[in-house]
Specification:
Number of domains: 2
Radius of gyration: 20 Å
Number of strands: 0
Largest sheet: none
Distance between the termini: 60 Å
Helix content: 55-70%
Number of helices: 11
InterPro entries: BTB_POZ_domain_cont_9
Organism: Rhizophagus irregularis
Protein name: BACK domain-containing protein
């Protein structure tokens, strides 16, 4: 496909990553889609783009591929959870997430991509599941989340924090403080 045509098509779908769009264009021309060469983020982006572009035959194919990659689902549980919350049409993926989440809410905390969770989802998660979570794990993850979401204002080693860093941290975690039972955190 010419670069001009590709750019014209892409202009109408500005939320689709160029690499994802190129993979889909290649699929349209060749009829082949190799998902094993992609990471989970790319495959999720492909799923969303295929849905947006009404490539209906691709959505179940990509969704089933994702469902069979259990380790990647665990590692990227936050991404998957946020995706199925925004795109209800991915029913199989949503069902798997719902079942896994109900069985073990701490999957969210243990996900490799935990720090990418949006504040509203994190607050909702803590509100719904706080009693079933280890408070020290919640606190540790909240520190990691705040550091990752501080726009590089917080050093990763808290021993190097200044008074300004502590203030920034306090502002970032303020919405979550009431959801942490500090009395259940023992010295370790």
């Amino acid at each position: 496909m010419s670069i001009v045509l590709s750019n014209l098509l892409l202009d109408g779908y500005t939320k689709i990553l160029k690499t994802v769009f190129e993979i889909l264009i290649n699929y349209i021309y060749s009829g082949k889609l190799e998902l094993a060469n992609n990471d989970v983020k790319t495959n999720i982006a492909l799923l969303i783009a295929a849905d947006e572009l009404c490539l209906n035959e691709l959505c179940p194919y990509i969704e089933n591929y994702l469902l069979n990659d259990k380790e990647s689902l665990k590692s990227n549980f936050v991404l998957i959870l946020q995706t199925v919350n925004k795109f209800e049409q991915f029913k199989k993926l949503a069902q798997l997430c719902k079942e896994a989440y109900q069985k073990d809410p701490s999957l969210v905390l243990r996900a490799d991509d935990f720090v990418t969770i949006e504040q509203e989802y994190l607050l909702e998660f803590l509100t719904e599941n706080n009693d079933s979570l280890r408070q020290i794990e919640v606190w540790d993850k909240l520190i990691q989340w705040a550091i990752a979401n501080s726009n590089n204002e917080l050093p990763s080693d808290i021993r190097n924090w200044t008074n300004n860093n502590v203030t920034t941290f306090g502002i970032l975690i303020q919405p979550f403080i009431s959801h942490i039972n500090f009395q259940k955190i023992s010295n370790y």
